[in-house]
Predict the 3D structure of the following.
Amino acid sequence: MERTLVMIKPDGVERNLIGKVINFFEEKNLRVVALKKVRLSKKQAQAFYVVHKDRSFYESLTDYMSSGPVVAMVLEGENAIQKVREIMGATDPKEAKEGTIRKLFGLDKEKNTVHGSDSPESAQKEIPFFFSDYELLSAE
């Protein structure tokens, strides 16, 4: 079993897509083991996306991610990271495959509704950013 972090971004929360997004993952046999709604400060958004600090989009991304509430969740399942990436679709909704979350709900490359860990190493850093061990429940 593998765990990954998924975040419903401010555009998804604002457009009341929380349940729809979670349903995409649950239909593919991924289980929610932790879930919370939070609002990141600019500093928290910068810390979360520190891997992108030298990229041109870093400031606009961290402004956006601190502009409204997000829903953070940990999903668990077989090949969870790869499965989540496939369900979300390409970063740019225009390039995402039909039927993916980003194709259906994404507005643009930044406001693409969801974030998901891109590797086991990222998941190991991102999950504790939002959740303590106490908050991570067994899927069983």
Summary: Residues 2-135 form a domain with the Alpha-Beta Plaits fold (CATH 3.30.70.141). The chain has one domain: 2-135. The longest strand covers residues 31-38.
